[in-house]
Design goal:
This protein has 18 helices and two strands. It is mainly alpha-helical.
């Protein structure tokens, strides 16, 4: 069924699917970062939200855990045991967090999820090292697939998939950095960038789960295609929230991405579609050193005139349809199909 009729802003509570896998993922992640021999691991535990700056335990801050959840879901959906894919799920979450640690440094972001970022507490050199360490821990965790009972051939395929995905993710990050300060970024450039920076790991999450759960390359390709489309849904929705998200929910003020002059979907679309005076205004604002409040208001008005938000949502909804269509030929239980439909709908309308 098409998701185009989904009302934007519909109740976007986290699907039950996330709760099912969360305890197992959380415990496995803690086990892998339990080392105490170097202060480095306190930094990583801090970034995961388990301890404060002094290394004292604190109530855990749970992220969505989208990537590990997708991985375990795909494994079960094709008939595998979720436990078999747990090392891959943990590796995915560590790779994702490694990218965020470095992202915070590159964007000079001092806070994330209402807490100081790693570099803001320990400085850039140590934060860089911590990010690198987390990436290597992810590799070590992934090698536990064989110990868990997965045959060598499929374990090798899994390692190859993840390595390819995080190289693509880093290529996407490079593209994103190279776009900064430019006003000639077209929609094709933007989509190519997000397919790597965001899409690679989401695509890999479903493909990994399918490879571990069943020895069927055609099924794995279908899940991979679904993940590629979900990557677009996730990032376009993220970009909508970066401009119009509710501050209390997202932790960012309305227009946050405009202030930062990010080349996100709304900005790229507005640049392409606006004409005359509006086009001149956008170019002037994006060439100024500092974007002030009247500038933000002007950009929001221009976006309103070319219906950026409507177009962005329609685009995300079209990718959501592609995601579900990719799995049409895959045999799975009605429950599993209902769950991936619910998860896709959540990604399309989520509020944070």
């Amino acid at each position: 069924p098409s998701l185009n009729l989904e009302a934007e802003g519909a109740t976007a509570s986290l699907p039950d699917l996330f709760q099912r896998y969360r305890p197992g993922i959380a415990q496995a992640m803690r086990d892998e970062l339990a080392q105490d021999n170097v202060g480095l691991y306190d930094m990583l535990r801090y970034y995961m939200g388990w301890v404060d700056e002094q290394g004292r335990p604190r109530p855990a801050m749970e992220g969505k855990g989208l990537r590990p959840t997708l991985c375990l879901f795909a494994c079960e959906a094709v008939g595998g045991a979720a436990e078999l894919a747990l090392p891959a799920a943990v590796a995915l979450e560590f790779i994702h967090n490694f990218s965020l640690i470095h992202d915070d440094i590159q964007d000079l972001d001092e806070t994330r999820h209402g807490r100081k970022t790693l570099w803001a507490v320990w400085g850039m050199p140590k934060a860089l090292v911590a990010g690198n360490a987390l990436r290597i821990v992810a590799d070590q965790v992934l090698h536990k697939l064989v110990a868990g009972g997965l045959e060598h051939k499929r374990a090798l395929v899994a390692v190859g998939l993840l390595t390819e995905a995080y190289l693509e993710m880093i290529e996407g990050q490079y593209l994103d950095l190279s776009f900064e300060g430019r006003h000639d970024i077209g929609m094709d450039d933007y989509l190519e960038m997000i397919s790597r920076k965001t899409g690679a790991l989401i695509r890999c999450s479903l493909a990994l789960g399918a490879v571990i759960g069943a020895d069927d390359p055609i099924t794995a390709t279908a899940f991979r295609d679904c993940g590629a489309a979900l990557g677009y849904v996730f990032q376009i929705r993220d970009d909508i929230l970066g401009v119009w998200g509710d501050e209390e929910t997202t932790g960012k003020p309305v227009g946050a991405d405009i202030r930062r002059k990010k080349n996100s979907y709304p900005v790229v679309f507005a640049m392409e579609r606006s004409k005359g005076q509006d086009s001149e205004t956008l170019n002037r604002i994006y060439q100024t050193e500092q974007v002030d409040e009247p500038d933000v208001a002007s950009v929001l008005e221009i976006m309103e005139r070319v219906d950026v938000r409507g177009h962005a949502h329609e685009s995300a909804a079209a990718y959501a349809d592609v995601a579900l269509e990719s799995l049409r030929s895959v045999e799975m239980s009605p429950q599993a199909r209902g769950e991936i439909e619910g998860l896709t709908r959540f990604l399309l309308v989520r509020a944070r």
